[in-house]
Write a structure and sequence with these properties.
The complex is a heterodimer of chains A (91) and B (791). By secondary structure, chain A is an all-alpha fold. Chain A contains 3 helices and no strands. Chain B folds into 2 domains: 508 residues, Cytochrome C Oxidase, Chain A (Up-down Bundle), CATH 1.20.210; 144 residues, Four Helix Bundle (Hemerythrin (Met), subunit A) (Up-down Bundle), CATH 1.20.120.80. The termini of chain B are far apart. The chains are: A mainly alpha (91), B mainly alpha (791). The interface between A and B is large, with 48 and 62 residues.
Chain lengths: 91, 791
């Protein structure tokens, strides 16, 4: 990969971090704020993995190796949070 | 062309040095088998104490404290230090042979994995000498495991042992996955893999993703107990959080223990029925399906904890679903036996016995998928019987069958068949006399030290205790048989069972390099070809070629000992800790610099990872486990935060400025790490060094900034035990900081090596591998920053 691509990725990461910092200064509803901030973090993570860790150029099986635990972790976090939500009987 | 075989530079088998420093997979396998059998005996002895206590009403053989310790340590040892390591012992010895490899991908890591396991077990046993061993049950339920209710040091020592055990497992999983997916003999496609290797591959995959959750939970438990953090003692975390973290690991662990046994049975049945395993493809698919579903069934262990009923419904469905693949497996195995001319030798007797016992254990487990029934049966002897039928009946019996099956391969001698059959008979009878009465004790609570005669439980308990002694003593027969046969048994020859898998295509015991020539598989048929290209029949001795590899290293045992004393130091205080850490750093450096040659076959099967060399794949596998580890830590943080009525607003306690500066620093360090790789590939030593140095400086700046933030916070009363915001912050950023520190130590090593002229002559792989780790640490921070500082 060319140096200019790495530099571009670096600039993107710095810029998105600045966006995160600016976003918290805005008076946004909590849900929207959380969505924007966490989506930005997710995007940064994907960019680092694709370009700095070169997943973009590796066999897809390597990406799958990493995606599987992300799905498992999402299940762990999601279900554990759901498990402590109060039960509201239907009807 | 016949080439001279160079004798590997290893001490003879009678030398202690050989067993301390060996890296050969067969030696390490034997070490695993022997050590796990030692823990089996220790845990079995504890079980006999427990059963003796319960054998009569109002018994005072053990007091409640001793009883609780015996029960707890029995469970931990059997599950973590016997069953899995016993299977890993077989995997070490057999898997490379079954795939036609000369060794595992990383022989020194294999030795490291064993020694970490060995020392972790020592830590576990040491807990008995610290006032009290863990006594709250093997599940270490919170808040019973908190400092308040279990004030003894023993649980801290045991937790340290569990952490070390998980380190051993992580190292092992990396090794086995790389070996199986990238080092299969030419032509050995996945569809030709023997059942045991298939089962181990799936098992190891499950271990990779299950154990980090236990690691996160145990680390938090350790921090709660040693540092005073509040995760498991605060009501917002507490019992439910521990349950989630533990059982996310705990249910897959049942299959982690069971699958190798299914693999053993899957290899034994075709050999002794002289017919292919019925529906092998569907058995493999069922194992994969069960492995996947096993990660979403953990909540059925929590039905009585008061979790959301909708979530209970979900777990009810998934738990029933996970039983279906096992139906397929069981039916396929029974179908293999139907109308077969079975040679009734000891291995197949144990295999058939294990199928029968697993059917009973499995069916009685399905009852527990029902929320209504689980409310009645949870915490009773029904559950005790169910999981022992699965884990001892289904798993341990089959693994013992595996021991008889592969004993001739490992030792080169046959065991005494009559004694082995007697052993099976006594074991099978003893097992059922021990555990079946427990199904009838479905109204007896499982965690009581004694009971009164008026309960009516006395007779069944007496029967169970008699069964325990029969089962326990029958194992002595096996030890005697195998010990004597090892020296005096009939010579076995390469293939005494006329089996068709690859381990039987070499001598018994196999030579250090396993095969004189690497086997080639064509359409599932093995060819042992010599240099001239002609093939030999299975079991025949082919001509030899030049083989020279390293088979010993002093560093794995030294690193493991240093880790052992480091953990002890954490419990005992600074002088020991400092010495152990210094010792460990020197040992890791020595490991890095050691010249250790491993031969890799150029044309080995490696789909789907062609082009991804072994170390790189190993690093990615390790990072996959790290994804679960950090997700579990972050999940714990999100859990307590969602569950808390109040939480400090962004910027109220943690300085956004501190966090932002560290984010910019770490992102920049990732960029300089990439520059180091670019420079190394370009052959520029100067810029490689400069980029690595810059990465080091940035990493140090991150750590200094973090340290100053910690200091500032602690001075202002935001301490480990000042509330959940503080506890979660210190534990999570602390774990991340330890990873950064490990990365910095690696950079120092890289700089030293780069100064010596390495990495710029087409050997930049090490810098790339370091980069993968460093960028991952960066990614973790990318999530920590918003979660702790911005939201």
């Amino acid at each position: 990969m060319k140096l200019i691509v790495y530099a571009g990725v670096f600039a993107f990461l710095m810029a998105t971090t600045a966006v995160e910092l600016m976003t918290i200064g805005m008076q946004l509803p909590r849900n929207i704020l959380v969505t924007i901030i966490m989506s930005t973090a997710g995007l940064k993570a994907v960019v680092i993995a694709m370009f700095f860790q070169h997943l973009k150029d590796e066999p897809k099986a390597l990406s799958i190796l990493v995606i599987i635990p992300i799905i498992a972790a999402a299940a762990l976090i999601g279900i554990s949070i759901l498990s402590i939500q109060p039960f509201v009987p239907s009807g | 062309m016949v080439q001279e075989t160079e004798k590997p530079s290893v001490p003879p088998a009678w030398s202690i040095k050989r067993w301390l420093f060996t890296t050969n997979h067969k030696d390490v396998g034997i070490l695993y088998l022997l050590t796990s059998v030692f823990f089996f005996v220790a845990a079995g002895w504890l079980a006999l104490l427990v059963r003796t206590q319960l054998g009569a009403p109002d018994n005072a053989f053990l007091n409640s404290s001793a009883y609780n310790q015996a029960v707890t340590v029995h469970g931990l040892l059997m599950v973590l230090w016997f069953l899995s390591p016993f299977a890993i012992g077989f995997a070490n010895y057999i898997v490379p042979l079954q795939i036609g490899a000369r060794d595992l991908a990383f022989p020194r890591l294999n030795a490291l994995s064993y020694w970490l396991y060995f020392f972790s077990g020592i830590l576990m046993l040491m807990s008995f000498f610290t006032g009290s061993a863990p006594d709250g049950g093997w599940t270490l339920y919170s808040p019973l495991s908190s400092q308040r209710y279990t004030p003894f040091l023993g649980l801290n020592v045991a937790a340290a042992g569990i952490i070390m055990m998980i380190a051993s497992i992580t190292v092992g999983t990396v090794n086995f996955i790389v070996t199986i997916v990238r080092m299969r003999a030419p032509g050995l496609k996945y569809k030709h893999l023997p059942m045991f290797t298939w089962a181990m591959l799936i098992t190891i995959g499950m271990m990779l993703y299950a154990f980090p959750s236990l690691l996160a939970g145990t680390l938090i438990l350790f921090a709660d107990r040693a540092l005073g953090t509040l995760y498991f003692s605060a009501p917002e975390g507490g019992a439910i959080l521990w349950d989630h973290l533990f059982w996310f690991f705990g249910h897959p662990e049942v299959y982690i223990v069971l699958f190798p046994a299914i693999g053993v049975v899957g290899d034994i049945l075709p050999t002794f029925t002289r017919r292919p395993l019925y529906g092998k493809k569907y058995i493999v698919l069922s194992l994969v399906a069960a492995a996947i579903i096993s990660f979403v069934v953990w909540g059925h262990h929590m039905f009585i904890t008061g979790i959301n009923p909708t979530v209970m419904k979900l777990f009810n469905i998934t738990t029933v679903a996970v039983s279906l693949p096992f139906d397929v497996i069981t039916i396929a195995m029974i179908e293999t036996l139907v109308r077969a001319k079975i040679r009734l030798k000891a291995p197949v007797l144990f295999a058939i016995g294990s199928i029968a016992l697993f059917v009973i254990g499995g069916i009685t487990g399905v009852f527990l998928a029902s929320v209504a029934l689980d409310f009645q049966l949870r915490g009773t002897y029904w559950v005790v019987s169910h999981f022992h039928y699965v884990m001892v009946g289904g798993s341990a019996m089959a693994l013992i069958g595996g021991l008889y099956y592969w004993f001739p391969k490992i030792t080169g001698r046959m065991y005494n068949e009559k004694l082995a059959k007697t052993h099976f008979l006594l074991s099978f009878i003893g097992f059922n006399v021990l555990y079946f009465p427990m199904y009838l004790l479905l109204d007896m609570p499982r965690r009581i030290v004694t009971y009164t005669a008026s309960t009516g439980w006395g007779q069944m308990n007496l029967l169970a205790t008699a069964g325990a002694w029969i089962f326990g003593l029958s194992q002595l027969l096996m030890f005697y048989n195998l010990f004597v046969s090892m020296k005096k048994g009939m010579p076995a020859g390469p293939n005494p069972w006329q089996a068709s898998t690859l381990e039987w295509a070499t001598s018994s015991p196999p030579p250090f390099h396993n095969f004189d020539t690497i086997p080639v598989i064509s359409e599932g048929v093995v060819h042992l070809t010599n240099g001239a290209g002609h093939s030999a029949a299975l079991g025949a001795k082919a001509e030899t070629e030049h083989v020279h590899e390293t088979h010993t290293s002093t560093w794995p045992i030294i690193i493991s000992a240093a880790a052992f004393f480091t953990l002890l130091g954490l419990l005992m205080g600074f002088p020991v800790l400092q010495l152990a850490v210094a010792f460990g750093v020197i040992a890791v450096y020595g490991y890095g610099r050691e010249r250790f040659t491993v031969r890799h076959e150029e044309n080995a099967e490696s789909w789907p990872y062609q082009g991804v060399e072994n170390v790189k794949l190993g690093v990615w596998i390790f990072l996959a486990s790290e994804v679960i580890f950090f997700s579990a830590l972050l999940g714990a943080y999100i859990f307590v935060r969602v569950n808390s009525a109040t939480w400090p607003a962004a910027g109220q306690i943690l300085s956004i400025q501190h966090g932002a500066v560290n984010t910019f620093i770490l992102l920049t360090s990732s960029f300089t790490a990439v520059l180091a790789l670019v420079s190394a590939k370009a052959g520029s030593r100067k810029y490689t060094m400069l980029s690595l140095l810059t990465t080091l400086v940035l990493g140090l700046a991150f750590m200094l900034n973090k340290a100053s933030e910690w200091k500032e916070l602690i001075e202002h009363g935001f301490t480990f035990n000042s509330g959940l915001p503080a506890s979660s912050y210190f534990i999570t950023t602390g774990a991340h900081g330890v990873h950064v520190a490990a990365g910095l130590a690696t950079i120092v090593y890289l700089i030293i090596r780069a100064a010596e002229g390495r990495y710029t002559k087409g050997d930049s792989g090490t810098i790339e591998h370091f980069g993968l780790y460093w960028h991952f640490v960066d990614i973790v921070w990318v999530f920590l920053f918003p979660l702790f500082y911005l939201l």
